[in-house]
Each structure stands twice: as structure tokens, then as C-alpha cells.
Amino acid sequence: MSFLDHLEELRWHIIRSFASIFVFAILAFVFKNFVFDVVILGPSRPDFFTNQLLCRISEALNLPVLCINQEQLKFQNIQMSGQFVMHIWVAFITGLVISFPYIFWEFWRFVRPALYENEVKHSRGAIFFASILFSLGILFAYYVITPLSVYFLGNYQVSESVENIINFGSYVSTISSIVLASGVMFELPIFIYFLSKVGLVTAEFLKKYRRHAIVVVLALAAIITPPDMISQIMVCLPLIVLYEAGIVIAKRVEKKKAMA
Description:
Blueprint: H1 3-30, H2 32-40, H3 49-61, E1 75-76, H4 82-111, H5 117-122, H6 126-155, E2 166-167, H7 168-185, H8 188-197, H9 203-208, H10 210-224, H11 229-259
Parallel strand pairs: 1-2
């Protein structure tokens, strides 16, 4: 295929990907009560799963500090079109999250013709594992990081004279950024796999720069979480585990290359 033919092929993959996002975004737009009342506002409610679980643990251990989000936060909208624009934006993000496996599959269909048969064989299951890791990252952020972030940021006060009445748009953007960033970061083993396949990284390289990677992970955790140590540690631990898993993956890739 010529360069223009490749561009034409890529264009249709992108169109189909956006069509998938658009379809799921429409569904999310229609079922706004479930998306907003149950999903978006869930982590801020006392009856949210994580909040209830932590409260039960706090009662068992006699640690009241673990019982979080027991008072419903107050939200406000300060723009005429604020809620409508937010409705559209949340619908788009929902469509993007649900469509991720299909988007990755479209990307895979585009690059697959450029791979050799043995590369295609060794890359089987990439879509499945990428989707699983992305979903795990989303769920981890939603059920672990988000409730802690909502509690810390929503109740933090510089003075008792200042009441927290949170802009709803700010609340949604905070949750969205945390959840999406976590989903992308959980793709770390997939990134390492493809980088090792093309020879850009090796297991020895990853071991050598392990300390540097931990510093980068800490920096990323500080960016996507509130500035409290508990949230940052809870983000760092799974990322460090995924990095170590990436080293194992890189070793396996090198072993298969040596046997080929």
C-alpha cells in the first residue's frame, strides 16, 4: 500500500473508533440519572461501597478516622449552561471509557499487517490484557483513590470561616482525571511489552533504572492524587507491582527472541 492508502485506512479506523464513542456517549446521555446519581456522585455519598466498608473497619478497629464521606458534600452550578455542558462532557468520557477495548482493537487492526507472522502470534491476547488492565485501573481509581480524594479535598479547610461549596464542574473534572489517568497508567506492562518487542527497552535496562522509575511513579502519584501520603502510597504500590511485572514480561520477550 502507498502512503496515501495507509492514511485512508487509518482514517476509517479513526472514524469507526469515534463512531463507537458516539454511540455509547448517546446511551450515557440518555441514562443521565444512573450516570450522575449512581456513578459520578457515588463516591461522595455515605452509602458508597468503599465508604461503608471503611466505616465498618473503623468500628472494628476503633479508628474513627477511617470512616469517611459520612456527610454529603454540597455542590453548585454557577453557569447558565454549566449543567448541560457537563452532561455532554460526562457522556463523552463515559463513551470513551466503554469503547476503549474496541478502540484498541481498531488500532491493532491497523498495525497488524505490518507485523510478521511470529510477531502476530506472540501478540495474541494483547487486546484482552490491555482491556483488563485498563478496567482494573478504572475500578481501582474509582473505588479506592476517588473516595479518599473526595474526602480529603472536599473537607479540607484553611479556616473554619470558609465553607466548602464545591463547583460541580470541578468535582467531575477531578474524578475524571483521576480515573482516566489511573486507567492509562495500568497499561504499563503493555507499553513495556511492545517497547521490548521493538528493542527499545530490555529487562536489564528496567532493572538498572528501577530507582528512577520509582521516583517517576511517586511524581505521577502526587499529580493524580490529593497531597496526602495514604492516597499516594495506594497509587504507588500497584504501579510498582506493574513495573516489576513489566520486567518479567521483558525477560520473556528476550527469551523468545533468543529461541527464534
